[in-house]
Amino acid sequence: MIWLQDIWVAENKTVATMTVDQDLPPLLEREWTGSQAGPYKFLSLGNVPDNIIPASPAVNLKGMHDLQNRLHRRMEQDSDAHRSSTSIHPALPMMLSAFARPSEIPGTA
User: Fold this and answer.
1) Which of 26, 78, 88, 100 has minimal CB crowding within 10 Å?
2) Residue 48 has pLDDT above 90, yes or no
3) Contacting residues for 15 by C-beta, under 8 A, at least 6 apart
4) C-alpha–C-alpha distance, residues 4 and 86, integer Å
5) Strand, coil or helix: what is 82?
6) What is the model's pLDDT at position 5?
7) Is the pLDDT of residue 109 over 60?
8) Beta strands in 1-109, from DSSP E residues, in sequence order
């Protein structure tokens, strides 16, 4: 199997089809009649002022990722700080019934 790639040549306004693994001359070279920017779109979320390279999606998502992790850690610490466990000894109801008035003990008149 032969892998092919299309390369945009801006100086000639052409698209050249070449092999990836072999050093062969272009298999096909055709003129581009579309937009001046060429056939490809930049995968970015926006231009950065005074910079040739546009902003990538990862740059914009890092702040959101850090915020979510920070909030999750804070909620986890908060829940650990407010956690309480109450344990009741099995004999506690019998001990409490000893202090109850006789009319409140079940099974007594």
Assistant:
1) 88
2) no
3) 6, 7, 8, 9, 29, 30, 32, 39
4) 69
5) coil
6) 94
7) no
8) 4-9, 14-19, 28-31
